[in-house]
Amino acid sequence: MVLAHSQFYDHMQSMLDEVHDKTSHDYVSEHAQLPPVDLFQLHFMYLFLHEQGQDEWEIEKTCIPMLFVQTGLDAHEMVTEDGTGDMTDESMKERQLLVLAGDQFSGHYYHYLANKGEVYAIRLWAQIIEKVNECKTDILYSGTHLTKAERLQQELKLKRTIVDALLDEHGAESFWYGIFALFAELGLVYQQFDGHPEQIEQLIKQIKKTLIEKGQPLLIQEMSPWLDHMQNNTLVIEP
Asked: Label partner for 150 (CA 20 to 30 A): which of 13, 25, 79, 158?
């Protein structure tokens, strides 16, 4: 796991354990393929909040709801858009479980924050989820009329919605938006758009250049293992 190289691994792992405890169900796991947790997004947001001087509780207050919401949204994305007429009973069960699991995962953010009296954060996440759903609607209505490049931009906008909203909330400088966009594009180009090796290599070079220009050794140390992982293994952001 790439996170194991981070000096913040123990804290990030404790957050992952807390989310896993709430979202792990034997019956669901037996009958449905659940989405992996977006570890890069967690690591990225952790580094940003740490750079902002936030303490562990403040970091948890952002990252744990983010994990709940993103995992829930990803579960919904895994639901097939095909009609249900030719589905087997097992396929129908998986479809239904993914919908229910996605709803439950997303709902955990509310209970987590409500138990801690974080009313403002609850409202913020409701607004973020609304933005995500608007992006999904735009993609759905666009159908198959977009070019490959236009489709990539729509998918990239969706991928960036949660992180960009959190960066907005914390008044982030442009570097953070830019570096996340590059990583997100790199992942999408390889996973969904069959990027050519030259295109992928160019994105990796651009990311390295951006990190070096930022001039913060900690960020280079923490983010470089993701690039090494992508170059040397499967070129995907997931572990």
From this structure: 79
